[in-house]
Design goal:
Length: about 475
């Protein structure tokens, strides 16, 4: 039997049928999904028109619009076109275990049903679209809140490229490497002892790149418990684990189209290293409890004070992750290897802390400077910064006259502890500086450094040049 034969041009709707249709229209107007709409149509129309079931036919908008089991063995007795603003949306198909609907459906019914069902479907599609948009708004709102928190931190710290101070040879080599890599998107691995300024250099790289208009997101891998670091990096969905009361955006997602600084990367657990490697290589992440991957465009800058190659050999760091990070390594020199920068750094720190504390300090005495130059600085630039802050707080007038430097045993850096043993070249350099300061910078003649060291003047000058001893370090008179 054809679809046209299922329609009766002469039969009119009865009062009972009209009442059912009126109730049907009211229920369809509030149907929350295609599955619910389809169920309403089945419940309301089946008794009147004696079909087995009906189905909304459409390319799937959701998992609700599925084909019922057993449909292939039944007859399609009627198909009503459904429309949206762009044309035909799909069809409402009626099925029966017989080849005809009895009694025949009135001719006017399909148009009426088509209008109402099409309107109900339009409402459902609009609601689903609105829900998706609201979810996206929530996502971006959460991301903006995280970014705002980071920007507030950045504003408080106020770092700039000018904060990296250094005119010594080792620092000039660092600046040269920075100029070669900053403007690229390459991964950078910063190596060096604690306190050498790795985060400052990471910020300088970011601020000199094409990503500088976006924030640099920092993660201290050593400060996050092992069971939380995956959530910190990749985020999680609400309810994905105990305590996950709301969705959280991870640092990778937050750093999209920006820079992610992974400090203390050598402290990351081995199982997490594999997930980090995949995120870097594939440029995609998956939130804990998430159902799909999220594409990210993130530049990685990693830093560590560990010897990563040794960590690889000891089985504590993945070799594949090491080589993925070791694209452009930059080793920051310890302060004991760049003593020519000590006076510059000390003056910069004194000026900053004096301003912050409302003091007027014009200079550092030569005795204090001699002590600063002779000290090995196991804590590097960070230790120098803290010492200068204390000097400013203790200063009684406009000159820094005293500095309270710890002895090797007091600082916990005694040579016997094996933490740091100076090279012959370093010992020789410091000894020559002490002698030169003792002679007030006099190199030759009676009482000069060459005489005290039992060296020829030319030999001493060669050593001064080779060891990078600057004039500022030599000519320091007592005040």
């Amino acid at each position: 039997m054809s679809h046209d034969e299922a329609l009766s041009p002469n039969r009119q709707l009865t009062a009972q049928e009209m009442a059912v249709l009126t109730s049907l229209y009211r229920q369809l107007a509030t149907a929350p999904s295609l599955l619910a709409l389809q169920q309403i149509l089945n419940d309301q129309l089946k008794a009147l028109f004696h079909f087995t079931h009906c189905r909304i036919s459409r390319l799937p908008l959701s998992a609700d619009a599925h084909v019922p089991a057993g449909e292939a063995s039944e007859h399609e007795v009627l198909a009503i076109a459904l429309h949206d603003e762009s044309g035909t949306w799909g069809h409402l198909r009626f099925y029966s275990d017989r080849e005809a609907i009895s009694p025949a459906i009135p001719m006017a019914l399909p148009d009426q049903v088509s209008s109402v069902v099409s309107l109900a479907i339009a409402n459902i599609v609009s609601t689903e679209k609105l829900s998706r948009q609201l979810e996206e708004i929530k996502h971006y709102q959460s991301q903006l809140e995280e970014q705002n928190a980071y920007l507030l931190e950045e504003a408080k710290e106020g770092f700039s490229y000018d904060d990296i101070i250094g005119s010594s040879g080792p620092m000039q080599r660092v600046f040269q490497l920075l100029s070669q890599v900053s403007f690229t998107n390459s991964t950078v691995l910063l190596l060096g002892e604690t306190g050498t300024g790795k985060e400052l250099v990471a910020r300088a790289i970011h601020n000199s790149s094409a990503r500088k208009d976006r924030l640099m997101v920092r993660v201290n891998c050593a400060a996050i418990p092992a069971h939380l670091i995956e959530s910190e990096l990749f985020g999680h969905e609400k309810g994905s684990f105990t305590g996950a009361f709301e969705r959280r955006i991870g640092k990778f997602e937050l750093a999209n189209q920006a820079t992610l600084f992974l400090d203390e990367i050598g402290e990351m657990p081995l199982d997490m290293q594999a997930k980090l490697l995949r995120a870097i290589q594939e440029r995609e992440i998956e939130r804990i409890g998430g159902k799909g991957v999220i594409k990210v465009d993130v530049r990685i800058i990693a830093a560590t004070n560990r010897n990563l190659l040794e960590e690889v050999q000891q089985g504590r760091f993945r070799s594949d992750l090491f080589y993925r990070l070791h694209v452009f390594p930059i080793t920051l020199p310890p302060l004991r290897e760049r003593t020519g920068d000590i006076s510059l750094l000390a003056k910069q720190f004194v000026g900053r802390f004096a301003k912050n504390n409302g003091k007027s300090i014009s200079r550092i005495s030569s005795n204090v400077m001699k002590a600063l130059l002779a000290y090995p600085w196991p804590g590097n630039v960070r230790e120098l910064e803290h010492q200068m802050e204390r000097c400013v707080l203790l200063a009684r007038d406009h000159v820094i006259r005293d500095v309270l430097l710890p002895s090797p045993t007091q600082s916990g850096h005694a040579p016997a502890a094996g933490i740091y043993t100076k090279t012959h070249e370093e010992n020789e350099r410091e000894y020559i500086i002490r002698v030169l300061n003792q002679c007030n910078g006099k190199i030759y003649g009676p009482g000069g450094a060459a005489q005290l060291l039992n060296l020829k003047v030319g030999t001493l000058n060669s050593k001064i040049k080779k060891l990078g001893i600057s004039k500022e370090q030599i000519i320091l008179r007592n005040h």
